[in-house]
Each structure stands twice: as C-alpha cells, then as structure tokens.
Amino acid sequence: MDKILLWSLLLTFSGSQASSPLAQRNTEFAVDLYQAVCLSHKNNIIISPFGTTLALGMVQLGAKGITEQQIRQSLKFQETSNGEEFSVLKSFFSAISEKKQEFTFNLANALYLQEGFTVKEQYLHGNKEFFQSAIKLVDFQNAKACAETISTWVESKTDGKIKNIFSGEEFGPLTRLVLVNAIYFKGDWKQKFRKEDTRMMNFTQKYGAAVKIPMMKTLLRTKYGYFSESSMNYQVLELPYKGDEFSLIIILPAEDVSIEEMEKLITAHQILQWFSEMQEEEVEISLP
C-alpha cells in the first residue's frame, strides 16, 4: 500500500443510517468543512464534522436574523422550525446510549457562562433538551482558573486524550459564554487484526520517500469498491466496528494519483454513492 487517505465523517454512519436525512446533511457539511480546513492546513488533519454541527447548533439556538440564516445554511438545515433537526439529534443521543456495551462513545456538551450574566431561560432550556448540555458558571476574569476548569472537563470526557485545550489567553474582559463540545470513541474492529501478523513494511510518504513502519495485515470479507472518476482510479474500503453502528472509510488512490487530486474529487454525493455501490468481497488489507 503506497498511499492512503483516511476519510472519517467523525465515525461514519454505516448500513441503512447512511441514507438517513441526518446522515446526508452531516455528510454534505463534512465535505464543506473538510475542503475549507484543507485550504489552511497542509499537514495531516483530524476534524469532527458531527462535533462541529453540535457546537454550531448550540449557537444557532440563540441566534437571530442573518447569523441564524448563515448557520442554518452552513449546516444544510432545511427552512423549517428550529426543533425539527434537533429532535433528530435527541433520538441519536438515545440510540447511542442504548448500545454502550459494544463500544465507548462519549458525547458531551457544556456551556460555561460568566457569573452574573443573564441569559434567556429558553436558550438554556433548549441546550439542555436538545444537546444535553451542562450549564456551568465561571468567572472569566480569572482566565487561568477558567482554562484549567474547562480543560479538566474536556480531559475527563475524552478519557485523558485531550489535555490543556485552553491556556487562558483565549478569554478576555468581554468573554461571557464559551460553548464546548467533546467527543470520544473507542471500539473494537468487527473483524480484528491479529498482533502476530503485524510486519515491518515500506510506506510511501506524500512526497515519495519510503519509510519502514509496522503494518497490520489481514484477509477478511468486507465492503469494497473500485471506482474511476475524471480519469482517476481509486479503491474504497469500509472497516466496520463491532456493533455495526460505526465504520471507518479508507480511500486508496492509484499510484499515479496524488492525495490533493483525490481530495478535490470528494463530494457528499460521491460518499453516499460509495455506500450504495460497495459490495462485500474478500480483501487483503495492510494498514499502518
């Protein structure tokens, strides 16, 4: 395997959920967000489109006029009442919590509010109802203490993976509200890689240099597709996690196709097409 592009819509909905309205809108927003981030970052990136959707949704509950309109357009929300999209999110929260025994999926939201600052009760209630947001009072005038408080909360919700997310420099004398979203996922592959099959193999980096790295190897049956678009050939593979609720999508461009060319090709329609056209096949896989 010379080059891989790991594409994750956070953790992609698999099976029938891939065609649900929520998954379709999230996919469209995910592609827009990914393309925007790529313009300003040349190295590897990790983003959570779903987490960003939740954060912007929390903002939108308190927005009006042009701001509300722009957020809704960015999130691909239809021109309907506020509650409709967020009611779908409530169902998602409930569905995920019912399957905790098969994987760990922590999804947490919080509003850190300046002590003494008045916020409409309707806004706080909406955040609690739709996003299960915790409401916490802090004093942003003590920026360092606030940074430690919020960072500790994020660290606890991500099993210690994200630490010191704030330093205190982010807060100023006019800071009144900070919205925080944290997501943590840990799951086992539906079909596990055997540790004894790991081998040192060549991996070709972006600019052509090859390095020796440990590569997991296995032979398994999973959804796979070979596609050709705009004279570019590439392979798409789905690796489901145990429980079949989430999966990782891996894209392997042909050797003569660069990562940048492949990225430009990706659209929401394309991703949904992969789900509908991939078929179960026996595939030999090597992954870092």
TrEMBL record:
<dbReference type="InterPro" id="IPR036186">
    <property type="entry name" value="Serpin_sf"/>
</dbReference>
<dbReference type="InterPro" id="IPR042178">
    <property type="entry name" value="Serpin_sf_1"/>
</dbReference>
<keyword id="KW-0325">Glycoprotein</keyword>
<keyword id="KW-0722">Serine protease inhibitor</keyword>
<dbReference type="InterPro" id="IPR000215">
    <property type="entry name" value="Serpin_fam"/>
</dbReference>
<keyword id="KW-0964">Secreted</keyword>
<dbReference type="InterPro" id="IPR023796">
    <property type="entry name" value="Serpin_dom"/>
</dbReference>
<dbReference type="GO" id="GO:0004867">
    <property type="term" value="F:serine-type endopeptidase inhibitor activity"/>
</dbReference>
<feature type="domain" description="Serpin">
    <location>
        <begin position="31"/>
        <end position="288"/>
    </location>
</feature>
<dbReference type="GO" id="GO:0005615">
    <property type="term" value="C:extracellular space"/>
</dbReference>
<dbReference type="Pfam" id="PF00079">
    <property type="entry name" value="Serpin"/>
</dbReference>
<feature type="signal peptide">
    <location>
        <begin position="1"/>
        <end position="18"/>
    </location>
</feature>
<keyword id="KW-0732">Signal</keyword>
<dbReference type="InterPro" id="IPR042185">
    <property type="entry name" value="Serpin_sf_2"/>
</dbReference>
<keyword id="KW-0646">Protease inhibitor</keyword>
<protein>
    <recommendedName>
        <fullName>Serpin domain-containing protein</fullName>
    </recommendedName>
</protein>
<comment type="similarity">
    <text>Belongs to the serpin family.</text>
</comment>
